[in-house]
Amino acid sequence: PHPTQRESMLRSCAARTARRSCGAAVGQRRMMSSGTVTVQLDKPYETFKLESEPPMTAEVTRDELLGYYSLMYRMRRMEISADTLYKAKHVKGFCHLYDGQEAICVGMEAGATWGDSVITSYRDHAWQLSRGDTVTGVLCELLGKQGGCAKGKGGSMHMYKADANFYGGNGIVGSQAPLGAGIAFAHKFAGDGCCSFALYGDGAANQGQLFEALNMAALLQLPLVYVCENNQYGMGTSKKRSSANDDYYTRGGYVPGIKCDGMNVLSVRECTKFLKKHAVEVGPIVVEFDTYRYHGHSMSDPGITYRNRDEVSQVRAARDPVDRAKRYCIDTELVTEAEIKEIDKEVKAEVAAAVEAAKAAPPPEQSELWTDVHVGQSKDFFMRGPDISTSSGVYGTNR
pLDDT (tens digit, 9 = 90+) per residue, 294-321? Predict the structure, then answer.
């Protein structure tokens, strides 16, 4: 069921536009959704201890391009709204935004299935959306409201969707790496033909736990893909100042690796297909997606003290992943500019409505303070409050 769910979501992003009539001129330029074009990818892969690599071409349909663009644009608008909500003090706690890195999430989803597991860092809003949640659901969790995936109790860093094999946002730097190896072990034990994608940033790439878990994964030949989202800065430290070897795809040593353009959704898609096949058939592999974040490390970081505005502007102008997806739509003549404008209009309205819905949603009930603390806890499970009179459950009940 998982591939169908994931493909259905991408198709639904395209279907809204495909159902519209944008006038006779638009209709004349439309191509049947079954038609495909071949796109030449422009940035070669770099490999380490591999005898083959992904193709430098990608077959793509109109529906796929519409799906990729509309989902990426939805993520971009969602993150921009999160920025605004944070500055208006609607968001409590940390907030790490993903704008600039959307091609990795959408490209990986296009090359994998929901049967494959994903675990990532605290920069997780887009992944929650791509695994089937709504913009409203993501923003409710961000604002600490009832409609969120963790009932408003997790916030920005702890998105989670177990029914789609998304094991979250994790707040501890690098902690998702050994957890991802454990999930890969579960896939191998089940023999389900799926793999685990464990994502981390270049700032976490020097964590010892990554290498300990990778060693075990190599010994056990686990279906694990280590995904380094190299956005060039770990907090405020550039990769050149933090890593003696910043070719992160080579850092597995005895594990093969590959470097891919993380700003091109089609390159990421083709690479992900290759990664999954290797992980399932051979064992662990490391990939470095070369990308860039537009915001600072978190919303408390202005992002311009260790880099300048010109650098950010130059990357936006030359490599923006959403703009590249749009150009694929137009240049292949599978999608018209009028359709793109209609998608943009619809997504902006959807996100604006989600913002208002999240702001209007109620906070969690006070009783939720005592739930979800232990697995399978009974209603009488005793938990002590600040003083005995504010405790929950029946004194002496421990399950």
Answer: 987 888 778 888 888 898 899 999 999 9
Q: Locate 330 and state its tokens.
A: 């137009």
Structure tokens at 368: 């939720």
CA 56 – CA 34 distance, rounded (Å): 22
Tokens of 159: 């998105």
Tell me the backbone φ, ψ of residue 20, rounded to 5 degrees.
-80, 155
The single-letter DSSP state of residue 363 is P
Contact between 38 and 354 under an 8 Å Cβ cutoff? The reply is: no
Axis crossing angle, helix 62-87 with helix 135-142, rounded to the nearest 10: 20
According to DSSP H, which parts of 143-298 are helical? 176-190, 208-220, 239-242, 265-281
Instruction: Tell me which DSSP letter residue 392 carries.
Output: B
Pairing state of beta strands 57-61 and 36-40? Answer: antiparallel
State the Rg of the chain over Cα: 22
In the chain, at which residue ranges do the beta strands (DSSP E only) sit?
36-40, 46-48, 57-61, 117-119, 196-201, 224-230, 233-234, 237-238, 257-261, 285-290
**Residue 32: which pLDDT band, with cuts at 50, 70 and 90?**
very low
Which string of b and e fits 190-215 if b means at least 16 CB within 10 Å?
Answer: eeeebbbbbbbbbbbbbbebbeebbb
Q: Judge contact between 334 and 357, C-beta under 8 A.
A: no
Question: Tens of pLDDT along 77-131?
Answer: 999 999 999 999 999 889 999 999 999 999 999 999 999 999 999 999 999 999 9
Q: Which residues face 117 on adjacent strands?
A: 196
* Number of alpha carbons in the 13 Å side-chain half-sphere of residue 263: 23
Instruction: Compute how many other C-beta atoms are within 10 angstroms of the C-beta atom of residue 271.
Output: 27
How many of the other CB atoms lie within 10 Å of CB of 308? 10
